[in-house]
Protein 1
Amino acid sequence: MKIPLIFTLHLISGPVGCFDVIGFPGGEVRITCKYQNSAGGQKSFCKLRTLQECGNSITSQRGQFNTGVHEGRFSLVDNPVGALTATIRHLSLQDSGLYRCEEAGGWSYDVNLRVNEDPCCLRLKTVTGYLGETVTISCSYPEELQNKTKFFFKQYGQYYTEVIRSSDSQTGRFSISEDRSSKVVSVRISDVREEDGGVYSCAVSAGGEPVSYYTRYTEIQLQVSVKIPTSTAQYGFYIIITVSVCVGLLLIGGLTLSFYKLGCTRTQEISTTKGLIHSRCNADL
């Protein structure tokens, strides 16, 4: 009877469930653990060495909400509505493993982070858009995230702002579509403006209660340029050709004139030489 009792006590006092989180090398995951009854203890997020021992840990400041704690690639924010959010940036394969978000003397949840290499999720792409026209930026995603909500974020300094999500077909000049057969999500930006330029990120939201997460992967650098009209480009091409022909003719003419002058000089030299010889011959006679 002692063994079942110990096992039951572990279930009551230990972590409730284990939740899977997927990330990609070079990307970012933002894990949110929701809680209802806080014991007023210090909250933390750590990578587990064993089921009972934390390794690297980041801890929130007790009683201070919405104040982020940053340690290298990790950050932790406690929200007064009952949500502890941990962020891991610049993911690597070594970040895979079991993590725990918890409150001392209270609740705790275990999170299994899997950092997967996938050719679909390249880190950086560059797309060019032209002022006043429409540009499309696209991201592929792995099959395991097919049924998840897709997001596009735009980077502003160290922060990312949501632009549009797959549950909204259109937001202002931005519209989103998804091709599930090819596992591609695309965003169209109409009437491109200069301020649209910058870095966009593809992201997926997954999970639910009490643990949910965002995973950001592919980044797209949108460069905004002014498109040169075709007629102008052709006109410029003709000007270049005309100038090139004129320069070529001038060079040919210059070379011809040089050879002509050289020939005249040689002729004069020969005539002068013949005249001198003729004069000497007459003198001898």
Note: Confidence is low (pLDDT under 50) at residues 1-13, 276-283.
Protein 2
Amino acid sequence: MSTWIRENTLNWIQLMAVKVLKTGSVPKHVAFIMDGNRRYANKNGVKKVEGHTKGVSKFCFRFDKLAETLQWCLELGIPEVTVYAFSIENFKRSEEEVNGLMELARQKFQNLLDEREKLMEHGVCIRAIGNLSLIPKDVQKLIAEAMIITKNNNRAFLNVAFSYTSRDEITNAVKDVVGGVVRGNIMTEDINEELISECLYTNHSPEPDLVIRTSGEVRFSDFLLWQTTCSCIYFTEVLWPEFTVWDLLAAVFYYQRCYTDLEAVKYTRRSAFLNNNNSNNRVNNFVTELQRDRESMLEKMSLGLAQT
């Protein structure tokens, strides 16, 4: 059985490189657009779904590489990772391919539940971000169970963007805000960037410090568009299934070179927020109630009761 928790496999040279990089600023949150799966599959003469088992693309994940990369991130002292596992746009692909990818998701999330003791021991919190109402109920149930079981873990965080696009995320956040105004829970003057951020799927996470996209593509593919205004963006030619620890170290080194400029941009943004923040008890109550509703829906999903 594939495992989500790996032992350290770095050699002494790689460990030395990690140690050197850790003397500088290390990102606390790294997001991956894991692309190149199709080209990897074609290059190696395997079926698309088989390729997905070995590699993360923009619509599913190469599980072995994901688990390996998570371990490298922990070695570097990166506590939070977000991966783009399945885009809503990929429902437009062939029925055979979508069904195959959903079956992979069933297998991998079941594997996660089977090794819950390891997840608890290592303090790993699993979160799925996306419109889960669009996926099959049995996959919903597995994902919801994983989220509920690990929700109090706080040593490492893995956010799996599944059935996700940024446009869908922002649209649903706006719907939540509009609903709050209609019900009288908040006022129009309460609406600002911070309130929208609190209504996003990613409201529990800090914004990514570093975004890595593999395969040579230079675009975001509708991934975390709201959250990456102050992020360092790193594009690499390597295909995701061939991504190595050296590629990760190169990305972190690039982040360190950009660190001073990034911090200046973040400082300006924080100052603007403090000057315009209009948070009040009304807003706080609305956000708290919204999170309760989402937790309730997650509980229903874990029991197979959620409506699709």
Note: The radius of gyration is 20 Å.
